[in-house]
Amino acid sequence: MMRLTVLGATGSIGCSTVDVMLRHPERFSAHALVGHRNSEKMLELAQKLRPAWVVMTDVAAAAALQGRLPDGVRLAEGMDAASELAASSETDMVMAAMVGAAGLPATLAAVRAGKRVGLANKECLVTAGRIFMAAAQRSGAAVVPVDSEHAAVHQCLVGHDRASVTRVILTASGGPFRDRDPSTLYHVTPAEAVAHPNWDMGAKISIDSATMMNKALELIEARWLFDVPPEKLSAIVHPESIVHAMVEYLDGSVLAQLAMPDMRMPIAYAMQAEPRLATGISWLDLARTGSLHFQAVDHARFPAMALVEHVLRGDDSLSIVFNAANEVANAAFRAGRIGFMDIVATVEQVLSRIPCTPVVTLEEVWQVDADARAVAEEVICA
Ligand SMILES: NC(=O)C1=CN([C@@H]2O[C@H](COP(=O)(O)OP(=O)(O)OC[C@H]3O[C@@H](n4cnc5c(N)ncnc54)[C@H](OP(=O)(O)O)[C@@H]3O)[C@@H](O)[C@H]2O)C=CC1
Ligand SMILES: CC(=O)[C@@H](O)[C@H](O)COP(=O)(O)O
Ligand SMILES: [Mn+2]
């Protein structure tokens, strides 16, 4: 029996993880479920899974659960409690599915404790990839990608010679505005931008897909996960989201991983690679699909993808700034404070205002992150 701690249990990835767990009760049990504010969703999950612990990182949300959890389920509050449970000897695996750099402390605690970590939270690696992967190497933690493209790359690499890899190619759906006249993008609403054509995801990543900031973050994520230099990393638009990624080898062979777009597949693979677990996702029927399409990424339409070329090749502080400014701008757009086109423009301005600095310690990471968030607020308020 594998005992899981699910960070971000109340979110999209968290709930899909719970779905996989409930399909295989003989294999998985919940040590802890961690949410932030959604106490009602947490109550529902706790009733289904009966974890040893429920943690709400928000104090008021924890108070709302007081006296309401099923018998035997203990309640805690705050990020420190989440980190302790993620690192506990009673946790075998951690599903890292909080959104944003806020997920870094608890995920890093799990990595430092040598856990198997299913990594959905890409912002962790974008913010602190070097520190994170070095910690995994020291502790022996297995960091298993959950992000669909990275889970695909992982599957295309298994059993193959890493030195023979010439290219890692991530697919990008192009989001809801792939074919829209760019001059109309100034006026799109958060409701339009969050409506992803293929995936049902949380609000932040859905907006990131619309700006293609998601793919930009994923290139940085791939760099750390697979130790691939920027010149071997690329993305290609694939509107069907059926091919999730490809790996090219020096003999010209290209391996791809295909599946219907449903996160339960990469989640289950991260929980147990082989023998594979049934997930309940729809079977891929290529005869019915008919054709798959691919096109180059248009950097003029998606300026985030031009920006990341520079970020990937610069100091680590650039990717911290890139992520933090995007988190602030993405939230400001969702709150109606800025327009859609202002999101990436804000990130670009923040990048130009913050000097590159060497980043070695976690304290330095948080300092750069805080500076970038403050400058992003200044840019938004100007
Ligand atoms: N959804 C998807 O299909 C995919 C997601 N990912 C990545 O996985 C991560 C989660 O995405 P997704 O599930 O869509 O996001 P959701 O918004 O659906 O869920 C986010 C989760 O994080 C919690 N949370 C929010 N803010 C904080 C905070 N400040 N501190 C601690 N916890 C917090 C939420 O708690 P609550 O709701 O209780 O407030 C919720 O449990 C992201 O990093 C995303 O990029 C990667 C690939 C695919
Ligand atoms: C499901 C998943 O992994 C998302 O990151 C997805 O890739 C988003 O779609 P885009 O390709 O539109 O960014
Ligand atoms: Mn992805």
UniProtKB/TrEMBL annotation:
Residues 258-374 form the DXP reductoisomerase C-terminal domain. Belongs to the DXR family. It catalyses: 2-C-methyl-D-erythritol 4-phosphate + NADP(+) = 1-deoxy-D-xylulose 5-phosphate + NADPH + H(+). Keywords: Isomerase, Isoprene biosynthesis, Magnesium, Manganese, Metal-binding, NADP, Oxidoreductase. Residues 143-226 form the 1-deoxy-D-xylulose 5-phosphate reductoisomerase C-terminal domain. It is an enzyme of class 1 (oxidoreductase). Catalyzes the NADPH-dependent rearrangement and reduction of 1-deoxy-D-xylulose-5-phosphate (DXP) to 2-C-methyl-D-erythritol 4-phosphate (MEP). InterPro entries: DXP_reductoisomerase, DXP_reductoisomerase_C, DXP_reductoisomerase_N, DXPR_C, DXPR_C_sf, NAD(P)-bd_dom_sf. Its cofactor is Mg(2+); Mn(2+). 1-deoxy-D-xylulose 5-phosphate binds at residues 122, 148-149, 173, 196, 209, 214-215, 218. This is 1-deoxy-D-xylulose 5-phosphate reductoisomerase. Residues 4-129 form the 1-deoxy-D-xylulose 5-phosphate reductoisomerase N-terminal domain. HAMAP family: DXP_reductoisom (MF_00183). GO terms for biological process: isopentenyl diphosphate biosynthetic process, methylerythritol 4-phosphate pathway involved in terpenoid biosynthetic process. Its EC number is 1.1.1.267. The gene is dxr. It comes from the Bacteria. Pathway: Isoprenoid biosynthesis; isopentenyl diphosphate biosynthesis via DXP pathway; isopentenyl diphosphate from 1-deoxy-D-xylulose 5-phosphate: step 1/6. It comes from Mariprofundus erugo. One of its GO terms (molecular function) is isomerase activity. PANTHER family: 1-DEOXY-D-XYLULOSE 5-PHOSPHATE REDUCTOISOMERASE, 1-DEOXY-D-XYLULOSE 5-PHOSPHATE REDUCTOISOMERASE, CHLOROPLASTIC. Coiled coil: none annotated. NADPH binds at residues 10-13, 37-38, 121, 123, 202. Mn(2+) binds at residues 147, 149, 218.
